[in-house]
């Protein structure tokens, strides 16, 4: 479909601040989209064929939600950090290997989706982002969870379907972490530290599909404390 027939979308977006032009075989962001930079709060350009974002993306000063998933992006421009109002960024299903340094400036970011990309190292630019609630990084090529997790403020962290074999000793100090998904990685039983089970705030830790049987977790120190948190969480739900 390309850029044809999108004029009504642009006209509506100029009034609503919301533009959805997904699945139009776009290879770049059309000039008409850039012309809306002063009004857009929500931009969805997902499921296109865009290989790079322009260096003037920071013109979208009011942007709160940006959906660029399902494109051909290998990186994000450094100006992405100037989108100070951004609270949701969906960059999943691309070919991104790392985040620009300026990502650490996205202080209002609440939800970040980076699943199905090419990350080999955990993006430490996200440490210190106190409003970040959900980080989705499943189906990448991460090999470890690095130290510094005491500054990771997410409540939900999904690192399933990676190649993780090492978990940092300070993951239990992540101040708000409640849900940790580590299914289908390369973790051995001794990679699960007693502190993670005993001292963290996690009430749900998913570990299916690693190098041990789930029933073996019951042998670890701290397992009883973990199950107590899980049971308490279930009681609150019902």
Task: Throw out a few tags for this protein.
238 residues; alpha/beta; two-stranded parallel sheet
H/E topology pattern: HEHEEEEEEEEEHEH
Estimated helix fraction:
10-25%
Proportion of beta-strand residues: 5-15%
Q: What is the level-2 CATH architecture name?
A: Alpha-Beta Horseshoe
Count of spatially separate domains? 1
Mean pLDDT: 96
Measured distance between first and last alpha carbons: 48 Å
Strand order of the largest sheet: 1-2-3-4-5-6-8-10-11
SS content category: alpha/beta
Q: What is the third-level CATH name, the topology?
A: Leucine-rich repeat, LRR (right-handed beta-alpha superhelix)
Ordered list of secondary-structure elements with their pairings:
Layout: H1 7-16, E1 18-20, H2 31-34, E2 42-44, E3 65-67, E4 88-90, E5 111-113, E6 134-136, E7 144-145, E8 156-158, E9 166-167, E10 179-181, H3 194-199, E11 204-206, H4 223-237
Parallel strand pairs: 1-2, 2-3, 3-4, 4-5, 5-6, 6-8, 7-9, 8-10, 10-11
């Amino acid at each position: 479909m390309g850029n044809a027939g999108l004029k009504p979308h642009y006209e509506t977006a100029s009034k609503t601040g919301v533009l959805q032009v997904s699945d139009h075989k776009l290879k770049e962001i059309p000039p008409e989209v850039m012309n809306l930079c002063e009004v857009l709060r929500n931009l969805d350009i997902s499921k296109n064929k865009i290989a790079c974002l322009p260096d003037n993306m920071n013109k979208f000063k009011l942007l709160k939600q940006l959906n660029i998933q399902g494109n051909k992006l290998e990186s994000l421009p450094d100006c992405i950090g100037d989108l100070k109002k951004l609270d949701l960024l969906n960059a999943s299903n691309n070919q991104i290997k790392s985040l620009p340094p300026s990502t650490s400036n996205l202080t209002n970011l609440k939800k970040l989706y980076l699943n199905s990309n090419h990350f080999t190292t955990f993006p430490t630019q996200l440490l210190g982002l106190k409003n970040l609630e959900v980080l989705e990084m499943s189906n990448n090529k991460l090999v470890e969870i690095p130290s510094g997790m005491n500054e990771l403020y997410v409540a939900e962290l999904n690192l399933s379907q990676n190649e993780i074999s090492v978990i940092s000793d300070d993951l239990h100090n992540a101040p708000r972490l409640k849900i940790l998904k580590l299914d289908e990685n390369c973790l051995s039983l001794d990679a699960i530290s007693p502190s993670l089970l005993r001292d963290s705030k996690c009430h749900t830790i998913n570990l299916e599909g690693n190098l041990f049987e789930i029933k073996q977790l019951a042998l670890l120190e701290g397992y009883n404390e973990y199950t107590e948190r899980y049971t308490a969480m279930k009681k609150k739900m019902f």
